[in-house]
Amino acid sequence: YAPAGRDAAVAPNTADLLIHNPYPWPVRVERLATDSGLGFRFLGAFDGPVAVVETKATPAEEQIEVTRIDPAFGPGRRVINPGRPGVRVTVTRRFLRGPRQGERELITQETYPATNRVIGQGSR
């Protein structure tokens, strides 16, 4: 899975990512695929501004533990879904060189809600 804030939803008839060439010269896009990820490289006749993408995640809400009691589970308790706490993610672009050197640009802010931790408990 991609880290929170760096993922993309897939939906028909919509675009998650649009790339616009802001330069007066052509730019070639190369895909870079490895076992650990997917990336892109933009190549052109001149050096454009270079930037890095930074992700900051902060806790948003705690998850809730829910117990499902069902004799079909058998004796004892077991985790059905571990859930996860909620998180608020801010993704920014920081320019390292070029006319915008030192500037930060907000790319997105997303809030991912907590999902419940679900415990199954059988009869005792």
Question: What is the residue-averaged pLDDT?
Answer: 86
Number of strands: 8
Side-by-side strand order of the widest sheet = 3-6-7
Element string (H = helix, E = strand): EEEEEEEE
Number of discrete helical segments: 0
Task: Give the CATH level 1 class of the domain at 48-121.
Answer: Mainly Beta
Distance between the termini: 38 Å
Low-confidence blocks of residues = none
Architecture per CATH nomenclature, i.e. the level-2 architecture of the domain at 48-121? Single Sheet
What class would the helix/strand composition place it in? Answer: mainly beta
Q: Helical residue percent?
A: under 10%
Tell me what portion of residues adopts beta-strand conformation: over 45%
The radius of gyration computed from the alpha-carbon positions, rounded to a whole number of angstroms, is 22 Å
Largest sheet, in brief, is:
3 strands, antiparallel
CATH fold group of the domain at 48-121: Resuscitation-promoting factor rpfb fold
Choose one word for the global shape. elongated
Describe the 3D structure.
- The protein is mainly β and 124 residues long.
- It has a domain at 48-121: Resuscitation-promoting factor rpfb fold, CATH 2.20.230.
- It has strands at residues 27-34, 37-44, 51-59, 65-69, 77-81, 87-95, 104-112, 117-121.
- β6 and β7 (104-112) form a beta hairpin.
- The protein is elongated, with a radius of gyration of 22 Å.
- It starts with 26 loop residues before the first strand and ends with a strand.
- The model has no long low-confidence stretch (mean pLDDT 86).
